[in-house]
Structure prediction request, 434 residues.
Amino acid sequence: MQLWLSISAVGVSGPAGYRGAILPRSSLSQRLALCLCAFLLLLAPSAAQAAAAISGIEIGASSVTLRFDQPVATASTFMLAAPQRIAVDLPGARMGRIAASGGLIAATRHGQYDPHTARVVFELNKPAVVSDASFSPDHLSLTLTLNPVSENLFTRAVRKGRRLFGLDDAKPVDARAPQRGGITVPLDPPKPLTVPPVTGARGTKRPLVVIDAGHGGHDPGSQSTDSSHKEKHVALAIAREIRDELVASGRVRVAMTRNDDRFLVLGERREIARRLKADLFISVHADSAVNTSARGASIYTLSEVASDRVAAQLAAKENRADILNGIDLGGENNEVSSILLDLAQRETMNISSQFATILQREMSPTIRFKDDAHRFAGLIVLKAPDVPSILLETGYISNNDDLALLLSKDYRRNIAVGVRKAVEIHFARRLAGE
Ligand code: ZN
Prediction:
């Protein structure tokens, strides 16, 4: 299992102590976690057994009941801030689809946190915490008791971390923080980061461009209106086209954050760029909108404040990839705010912005852009403080005309050529000290 802690563990700098405040770091608690994990493995249904499906979600005035078609042994809950959410992990269950809202719950989202664990995320209308949770005697349902609280108490609950339910339904194991009906345990250790190979021009003095194909694995990104085309595939195909064009130019070195259908959390993507000491990071995506007539490409760079409502919505959508995987967006948002005070970050943002301008200009002869095509948003994937980064939305997968373009070899090549020209101009200017 890999959790939101992976970001701090792969070495991204951020306000020290923020995550430390959430997690007890004593070796005692780590050993306790290991014990609990081993215990859970014994309790969890074996892999050979079919996973339980979530067969119903009932939302009451101050409760949420999850129903399963097979018994689920344990569950754990934790709170996430900005936006305020309650996450429920269900070992031995598979990802559900039921959308439910009402009362304190604004929306329900589902994800497969790992191959054996389903995650349900409830977006809240106002701050509320899980004050208790109990399984029915047959373990075919789990009822969470929700308690509306102040903003302060909600923040405190976020810091407390994960609470576990179903272990004998009683005895708190963590004696330091006994809580009725549940226990607080540390989150799991992160998995190590895999740094991808570098291709292209020889010699480490050549600038290095990292191409990031958005989404991947169990995160499909946006989809075409008939669901037959997924952003993760479109983004990877275009990212490869860009890589090939850059490699052929012989002027830069190139690496890809992913070159297959794998999932990476957003922090890992930018950390790959930092580990490789990249000079430029380009994240490739395809847009979507409820309004299926929306068309055109756009370029995003990092900003504390979104340039407009559309930019804010896009940040919420693109950042959501991590919500289902347990990344604490509340912490991320705080980091985005605090690093903006950093002068190095300001310089990086200026360079990113300049590159975005060149990129739009160089792509415009062959690629149609939206009005106000260069926008600003608090995108997590762009947050490396020392690597100029942009996010390129290559067109709308939700618009049939744009989709046909996104799937065509010519359009993909035109994008790649535009990026290559912009990259060449960008580095020539920087070498000249402009
Ligand atoms: Zn995307």
